[in-house]
TrEMBL record:
Protein origin, superkingdom: Eukaryota
GO biological process, one term: double-strand break repair via break-induced replication
CDD domains: GINS_A_Sld5, GINS_B_Sld5
InterPro entries reported in the protein's UniProt record: GINS_A, GINS_bundle-like_dom_sf, GINS_Sld5, SLD5_C, Sld5_GINS_A
Domain (DNA replication complex GINS protein SLD5 C-terminal): residue spans on this chain: 179-233
Name assigned to this protein: DNA replication complex GINS protein SLD5
Entries under SUPFAM superfamilies matching the protein: GINS helical bundle-like, PriA/YqbF domain
Family: Belongs to the GINS4/SLD5 family.
Amino acid sequence: MDIDDILADVDGDSTPQETRDLQALTRAWVAERVSPEILAYPEALLDRTVERIRRQIELVETQTGNMDPRTNFRLVIIQTELERFKFLVRSFLRARIAKGRGMVLLIRAGIHIQIDKHALHILTTPTVRARLSAPELQYLTQHHALQHAHFLASFLQNFPAQLQRLDDTAGGISMIDSPDLDAAVFVRVLRDVEEPLVIAGTNASVVLKRGDVWVVRYSVVSELVAEGHVELI
């Protein structure tokens, strides 16, 4: 362990939990927005954040009637910080929902229609499905069921039975749209990785050192992202 590691450990222990949670939430938000696939749901972090938001809202509502200028200024600061947390939570959850409801625009007579993109991939892949929170899984399951019922009533019922499935894989062509795991992403190395990272399909390999920033295919670093060795930026 070098001096940087020691200082990092000391700083981490001395940083308030609220600040660490804000940093973790910001990193999770950035990672979710740039990752081509849905990432694991940080349940403990979100539970603490939502509970903190609830307490802060109660505090603001309780003290809103106080006309003391000093107290009012304090409430302004609390409300500003509260809005920052609320924005991060909303944007984080919307980024996750967008991966279950990827937007494909069909423009017809001036009408924009949203069609689910990766819902079937998420629901039919156990390892990916396990990354959802209980409310997310319930929402995605019900939304997909409603969509399928709508498609069936609108036009699928007129098709032959063998063509009515939305997850058909006949003929070697899958109707399940999967995320592009070979998309390029920027990553920052958080911890040294002992084994060189081999780029699949090439003879190239790289050594990941703490602090390095690389642009690579997501599929090459997905396991390192899950293990916390690198972070998406």
